[in-house]
Amino acid sequence: MTDDLWVRRFHPAPQAPARLLCLPHAGGSASYFFPVSRALTPGVEVLAVQYPGRQDRRQEPGIDSIEALADEVTKAVRPWLDRPVTLFGHSMGASLAFEVARRLEAEGIRPTGLFASGRRAPSRPRDERTHLLDDDRLIVDVRKLAGTDSALLEDEDVLRMVLPAIRTDYKAAETYRYTPGPPLSCPVIALTGDADPKATVDEVKSWDEHTTGSFELKVFPGGHFFLNAVVPEILRMISAHIDGHLAGTA
């Protein structure tokens, strides 16, 4: 189900006591989280963000700044904040989720938690310039990470549609720089693969610097898209986190 341009609610759950807001990786789309929505409904209502420049928004120009994206996403999710909301972001989506959480807390809205998956802490930048590569080398990098179905990349027409969005997202992720400010107060749960070339365990561990709330680090076997192999375990973690919050506020 499409509620608006930005927020997708595939399985409406009007009686769910809490929501999970999912933010995709670079080149990803809201539909990546369709299985998550199906699995967690009806106990949790899942919302997935659709960035401009892909799928049904492919005619719109992409946004190549995490800060600008965070401003737009924060505006878009305000109508959905009448229930407790937990944020989940993978890779670029984790940086974006962090910036959205900062904006919400600045407005006095405290998320129940932030799941930061497959991403270095904001305070641990790297000098990355993949977004400046030519098309062929950019495709090689995307295939190496296994973030986009390689079968899609073999289709020339599909490739031409998705490559601009991938490049825009890579630029947003690679040029993002943390602006120092108050840490979050909500819990942060950092998830990573032990062989992720984009985020070492040490870089991910630094997420604990960005919250005064509780911090948990969970390391899984695998690379940048480790989560595809451990979906049931991650869903259990999310459900347990949300259930714990609801029990604590009952």
What is the CATH C-level name? Alpha Beta
Query: For the report, how would you describe the main beta sheet?
Result: 7 strands, mixed
Structural class: alpha/beta
Give the termini separation.
Answer: 30 Å
How many β-strand stretches? 7
Secondary structure tally, helices: 8
Oligomer: single chain
Give the strand content: 5-15%
CATH architecture: 3-Layer(aba) Sandwich
* CATH fold call: Rossmann fold
What's the mean pLDDT score? 93
Order of helices and strands: EEHEHEHEHHHEHEH
- The structural domain count equals 1
Fraction of residues in helix = 25-40%
Dominant shape = globular
As laid out across the biggest beta sheet, the strand order is 1-3-2-4-5-6-7
Report the CATH superfamily.
Alpha/Beta hydrolase fold, catalytic domain
Q: Radius of gyration, Cα only, in angstroms?
A: 17 Å
GO molecular function: hydrolase activity
Pfam families: Thioesterase
Family: Belongs to the thioesterase family.
InterPro entries: AB_hydrolase_fold, TEII, TesA-like, Thioesterase
Write a short abstract of this structure.
By secondary structure, the chain is an alpha/beta fold. The protein has eight helices and seven strands; from the N terminus they run ββαβαβαβαααβαβα.
